[in-house]
Write a structure and sequence with these properties.
By secondary structure, the protein is α/β, with parallel strands linked by helices. Helices cover about 20% and strands about 25% of the residues. It has a seven-stranded mixed barrel. A two-stranded antiparallel sheet has the order 2-3. The protein is globular, with a radius of gyration of 18 Å. The structure holds zinc ion. The site of zinc ion has 5 residues, from strand 4.
């Protein structure tokens, strides 16, 4: 896509922010140290404002690349920026319940809308529940092993979820989706929120460029959806 094509495409589009705010103590994986965002340099003391960050690469709205679960998988700098954007299909899965596995039964009704090469956005509604509450922190719905295989079989290339992880909150439920999807070369966006307009559109052009942290298996992103 040339820059003229991008300008033309975005000229008609409405842009929506799918990112969650990153702040001290914000929700994140329960085993990780909490994020710290501190205003350590201030106009009053040093003459300008600057903030200190102390956080895991997988806290807040972020992207997993294969190296996160695959020892010889691609790391952030080994994935071209062109791969971090493209056509996305948005699936409204807001009927799912806490701790529910998302498998072929839940996904099959959407099969006709999914095209090869898509980024698949699984909207569970958890993005609206984001808090330190147990339902958000531990009981999110997750992609099962056979759900991951179903997505791989559709020849899509990435997934995005509005929960803390594509897998569940336990090792038994958490590993399978990561091993299968990242093992198949997918990247995965976690801890997004999906605005109602984007759900209603059902399709968008998604932009999710991670910070360039060489060697890392994940990094924070600002996620933007362009809807025609
Ligand atoms: Zn992650």
């Amino acid at each position: 896509m040339t820059s003229a094509m991008v300008t033309q495409a975005l000229g008609r589009a409405r842009l929506f922010d799918l990112s969650q705010p990153l702040f001290s103590g914000c929700p994140g994986w329960y085993g990780y140290p909490p994020a710290v965002v501190e205003a350590t340099w201030t106009i009053k003391e040093q003459g300008f404002n600057a903030e200190h960050l102390d956080l895991m690469t997988h806290t807040g709205t972020h992207l997993d690349v294969p190296y996160h679960f695959v020892a010889d998988g691609r790391r952030i700098e080994q994935v071209g920026v062109e791969e971090f954007q493209g056509q996305a299909v948005v699936l409204d899965l807001r009927f799912v319940q806490p701790n529910q596995a998302i498998g072929p039964d839940e996904l099959q009704p959407f099969a006709g809308r999914i095209e090869a090469g898509d980024i698949v956005v699984l909207c569970t509604g958890w993005g609206e529940k984001r808090s330190l509450d147990d339902v958000f922190m531990r009981q999110w719905p997750y992609i099962s092993a056979d759900g991951a295989q179903w997505l791989i079989d559709r020849q899509v290339r990435a997934v995005a979820v509005d929960t803390l992880s594509i897998g569940g909150s336990t090792p038994e439920t958490g590993r399978p989706a990561h091993v299968a999807l990242l093992g198949a070369g997918f990247w995965a966006l976690e801890d997004i929120r999906v605005p109602e307009e984007v759900i209603a559109a059902g399709r968008c052009h998604l932009f999710s460029f991670p910070l360039l942290i060489p060697g890392a298996g994940g990094a924070q992103v600002r996620v933007v959806a362009a809807v025609e």
